[in-house]
User: Fold Transcriptional regulator KdgR from Paraburkholderia humisilvae.
Amino acid sequence: MDAHVDDRDDGDRYRAPALDKGLDILELLAEQKGGLTRAEITKLLGRNASEMYRMLERLVARQYVVRSAGGDRYSLSLKLYALAHRHPPMERLISEAMPLMQRFAAQAEQSCHLAVYDRGNLLVIAQVDGPGTWGIAVRLGSRVGLIDTGSGRVMLAFQTAEQRTQMLAEHTAVKGEVTIDHTALEAACERIRTAGFSQKDSQQIFGVTDLTFPLLGSSGQAIAALTCPFLKRIDEYVAPSLDETIALLRDIVQTMSMFREPSAYDESAAHTSP
Assistant:
């Protein structure tokens, strides 16, 4: 018997119509920038209107799909993006990043941490302390603000406008988060995109300058943000300067990008677009 016939038989034998409908909707919405109405989804998929209604309601309830403010259009949420970051490729990213982060910490004599987007804010997935007596570090596993941190603003800056809107819609303020209006935030993101990184005084701790670079996928979207909370020495010890630290951090991010295999991480970043 022909092997291709066997493959088709197996595909028919194990069909799950309800699952197929849900996957069809997700795949269709993944290709749309502005979302689709229920009527448009029904027409494009050639499905029955009532079954599309039930499926969309379940996808919304499970937060894979979101409605527009007017309630008439549907688009993908970032839940698939967040789930993808729990996948083994993220473990590979961490394993490749850690030696480079340790090298940076030793050379710059500063700490650093790597964060990814997760459910409306940033999640710290790797952290390395500086070698000196003094330092500041963000605890591994911490959730940091999307709006008022270097990590969050860099992650926002290097996304498409549509995905930035979704990220902000999913955002919930963390403890002590400093608010900022939309116009000012967009202006900050534009400055970061122009500079290629973020340099800003910390809005959490006095005397710290946050330096953040994006780790970009092949589409130009940030899949992670590497931050150094820079502390300036004021005694007689001569440590690497702010400019030297920026150069070291830039080199580390560029090296991480060369080591990273785009196919391993960019699939999740493609759902999102200092």
Notes: The chain is about 50% helix and 15% strand. Residues 1-5, 261-274 have pLDDT under 50 and may be disordered.
